[in-house]
Write a structure and sequence with these properties.
Layout (H helix, E strand, L loop, with lengths): L25 E6 L4 H14 L4 E4 L8 H6 L19 H20 L3 E6 L2 E3 L3 H14 L6 E8 L14 E2 L4 E10 H9 L9 H8 L19 E4 L4 E3 L37 E2 L2 E2 L1 H5 L23
Parallel strand pairs: 1-2, 1-3, 5-8
Antiparallel strand pairs: 3-7, 4-9, 5-7, 6-8, 10-11
Length: 313
């Protein structure tokens, strides 16, 4: 995973690979422009798997400031503290939430029926595409009603999750962390947007369990009604993180970033839009223009150890 790809032999013909969307209307790969090594690795992996994905430039928490957050109406959920770190939101977590939020907007705007998302730090299980195709084919055959399905996540409970009736490889998830990869429908994206989450912001991997009513922090519930997202998870999981806390080359752009003070961040220097405009399929995207920070716009789980980061769990 860290070294170069194997070189093709000049004596063996390797036919070109064909890629498809696996029946999805669109497949997104979320990547920070300042993480080109992750972008390259992921696009090479997706090519080898025969998956036609488009790069979606992530919102960089390092380039956010008060004026931009205020223009979006962003406010932290009252009295929010990270359940593990006992701290407020970080700018990286806000950037991560906005990245997913803008994708949900894109789904609704374009009326995509079903989409698939990957973050840029995932490791695929062997036969990933074949396994997922079998699952989605069975879902269609059984006319399964769903709105969000995790392909990768961090389980926070050790007890067995209930199976989805008629499926050996789908469960109803308990409280989980991470948004490594998930499938989402138009209806699911619309539910997540209709809750107006930017006005009561929590990290995106806290927001999803709230919305499928499995979050243990009951004091947050009253801010999110109804909590009726139809969520499931593949089991066993199909993607995992490339690195874990403490391993060589481990990087977290969410946990290891500036924290909000009193619900907002001290204004940071204006970002230069020319310093790294992103792309979808290597071209400038509408999304990049939409969030460009120019000079005018920038201005029920077990015992938790609050000293530990959620990345360490």
């Amino acid at each position: 995973m860290e070294g170069p790809l194997l070189k093709e032999s000049e004596y063996i013909y390797v036919p070109p690979k064909t890629s498809d969307k696996m029946g999805f209307d669109k497949i997104y790969m979320i990547n920070l422009v300042r993480r080109p090594e992750r972008r390259k690795r992921m696009m090479e992996s997706l090519y080898e798997l025969g998956i036609d994905a488009q790069i979606f430039d992530a919102v960089d928490g390092k380039r956010l400031n008060d004026s931009y957050l205020q223009s979006l109406g962003i406010k932290m959920l009252p009295n929010f503290l990270d359940p593990y770190g006992n701290r407020p939101l970080t700018m990286g977590e806000i950037g991560c939430f906005l990245s997913h939020y803008f994708i949900w907007q894109d789904i609704v705007k374009n009326k995509y029926k079903e989409t698939l998302l990957f973050e840029d730090d995932v490791r695929f299980e062997p036969y990933f595409k074949r396994k997922l195709n079998i699952i989605t084919r069975n879902m269609v055959q059984q006319n399964l009603k769903w709105e969000l399905i995790y392909l990768g996540r961090k389980l926070l409970r050790t007890d067995k999750e209930p199976s989805v009736p008629g499926f050996d490889d789908l469960v109803y998830p308990y409280y989980s962390y991470w948004t490594l990869s998930y499938m989402i429908t138009y209806e699911g994206a619309k539910k997540l947007l209709d809750m107006n989450p930017l006005s009561k912001l929590v990290p995106v991997d806290e927001y999803l369990p709230i919305m499928f009513n499995k979050h243990p922090e009951k004091s947050w519930w009253e801010h999110f009604e109804p909590r009726n997202l139809i969520a499931m998870s593949v089991s066993p999981l199909l993607v995992f993180p490339t690195h874990y806390t403490g391993e060589s080359n481990y990087i977290s752009d969410t946990e290891d970033s500036t924290q909000i003070e009193g619900g907002s961040e001290t204004e940071q220097p204006n970002a230069d839009p020319s310093s790294g405009s992103g792309s979808q399929n290597q071209q400038s995207s509408e999304h990049s223009l939409k969030i460009a920070f120019d000079k005018n716009s920038m201005g029920e789980h077990g015992n938790l150890d609050p000293a530990r980061s959620k990345e360490e769990l």
